[in-house]
Design a protein that fits this description.
three-stranded antiparallel sheet, DNA-binding, globular, homodimer, 2 domains
DNA sequence: ATCCGTGCAAAGTCTTTGCAAATTA
DNA sequence: TAATTTGCAAAGACTTTGCACGGAT
């Protein structure tokens, strides 16, 4: 999932960021450059804290405040996308050169699987229309067990992993006519 | 949306809560009763803080800590459901006597529209199957503009309301074959 | 020469926790 | 009576902000 960017792609991202900053009178500082590069070489999904840690490990020193001030810039210029999973943490993922997608989260191992489906967008439009609602975006997150965890778990075992808050539980209720 | 519960329904909720507590050696205190009743008479969606405020207005006095300690109980016994919208706040909604549903949020007026669709569950299963993923729950949230706000907004006006973080933006990109 | 940005620590927000006194089953 | 709860305030986790110094254009 964490795709390795080519030098060209990195250069493109850099110029996007640079231009974004320039256009609004902001400066392309060494810290911002450091952060951009670190973000691009980081795994697809991460949080502010992880970024700080991987920077430290790389011998780089950027204040936490700077990270918190820079991440929104990277989001606004389209290089990152903010993602909310179940927890209170703000997660980020690469948006640069990625297709829009949604997420499946394994309750057991917390693995994140990305997927995209036109049907979702179609469905969202149909549903919205019923309420004369003009849909412009959506979040669709599926929780459950990935294949590996299903395998590893003998039938009937219910480890009671905390749920994604707000998820629609599969109660096994019979489908009801609309 | 905020449906008024009958006395019977309230009594049922109370016995559910009571039994839930009893079953695990917990106590049905006046504070818990107060909170249960307040929750049931509150609007469909609320947060911890709002609950505190409406309690105060009703002349009731329950410590904030007690609220934070009680809400999870009400969630676990199925009377409430935790919902995460875009922000960091933990929102709650009535689950007692409600059908599973998802939400549409208006970017403009923040109105929340509930909807349910079997197609979503069907779609989630189909998608999950592609990854040999066992889906047990989902969250589907649509952002956009409600009818009233579409009406109120002259074409071309883009007030730039902060987005639901993590939402898939409608970029108007042409549908691409998988 | 100006602004803008950084670091640091302090402040904020929402939530959790420790503890003694008060209650419930 | 024994164990759970409450209220209060302190602590926590994550994020934002104020300020003085340093740096980019």
């Amino acid at each position: 999932m964490a795709k390795q960017l080519t030098e060209d792609e990195i250069a493109t991202a850099e110029s996007i960021f640079r231009e974004y900053l320039h256009d609004r009178g902001l400066k392309y500082t060494p810290e911002r450059r450091t952060l951009l590069l670190e973000v691009l070489s980081n795994p697809d999904h991460f949080e502010a804290e992880q970024l700080l840690i991987s920077l430290r490990q790389a011998g780089q020193r950027v204040a936490k405040a700077t990270i918190y001030r820079t991440l929104p810039l990277l989001v606004n210029c389209g290089i990152l996308r903010q993602v909310q999973f179940g927890d209170k943490l703000t997660h980020y993922e690469h948006a640069f050169g990625q297709n829009p997608h949604d997420h499946m989260v394994c309750r057991q191992c917390r693995r994140i699987i990305e997927f995209s489906s036109e049907d979702i967008v179609r469905l969202r439009t149909v549903i919205a229309a019923r309420f004369r609602f003009h849909a412009t975006s959506h979040r669709f997150q599926i929780s459950g067990l990935c294949w590996e965890c299903v395998q590893a778990r003998p039938a009937g075992e219910q480890p009671f992993v905390p749920l994604d808050p707000g998820a629609i539980e599969d109660t096994g209720s019979p489908p009801s006519a609309p």
